[in-house]
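Intended use. Records like the one below are meant for learning the mapping from a protein sequence to its folded structure. Do not use them to infer anything beyond what is encoded.
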Amino acid sequence: MSTARAERLVNLVLALLSTRQYLTAERIRGIVPGYADAASDDAFFRMFERDKTELRELGIPLETGRNSAFDSVEGYRIARRDYELGEIDLAPDEAAAVGLAVRLWDSPELTGQAQGALVKLRAAGVEVDHTAPTVVESRVRTEPAFSPLLAAVQNKQAVRFGYRRSGSPERLVRTIEPWGVVSWRSRWYVVGHDRDRQAPRCFRLSRMLGEVRTVGKPGEVRRPEDVNLLEFVAGTGEPETTPVATAKVWIADHRAAGVRRHARLVGRLTVDGVEGDLAEIDLYTPERAADWIAAHGPDVLVLEPDVLAKTVQDRLEAVLSGEGQP
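Structure written out for the chain above:
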């Protein structure tokens, strides 16, 4: 977004917040800096329509209405009761979780957004502990293609990139209309309409080769309203039909919900005085499972097989020594 447009949107929000009456488009044109530069009436109305859409997409509650039954033209305003942030009340453990979430992101784009959210919470009077110690310092890493794809999604613009399919050295060129970028099983995917295949497809960012280039003009991509990006990736991901092994693990009570969702509880077990469940987990990719289990730190203990238990232990020791992360 250009600086001029950003300033105009801020001025528009301030103007609509400062009045209890509905302001007509013509009135807004006269009092909001930035609209007077429009070359014609049509140019102003196109600009104003884009700005209204932008505000609504940002979640700003833009109201329309008339001040009296005698008014022939509708106006606009923003009700403070709907715009202002309500009271936030976080328990100490919830505040610590927010602080930890800020530390998870390992990319300049997302780090900035996370820190911005932290500032807003503090401005609302919520004390967030972002220095809470953790046994395992997990991080959500992004791929080089993440930033340009996210920008393309926001700009509603098609992209083209090189791609390597699983198990094949062949480089393909794909052109898609991106609908969104999601994380599934510790991997990032972009979902959209594949122009080459004329069908919806998802692509793993780690398999993209070279630069992601934009194609066509912004605003040309239309995302279907009924599409669920995460469900699409989960349903069309790489097949994992037959487990290669079964792991037996101990899970501390009321912890590691992510592991519990994939586990079969088979009994109870106490480890070092801590109560927990004895569970079995089907393993499709043991190496990935080691990273996933190690991320839960002391809340999950691998009992069998020995190879997986040793791999998880190595991951944790590397983290504690500062040599790596799970």
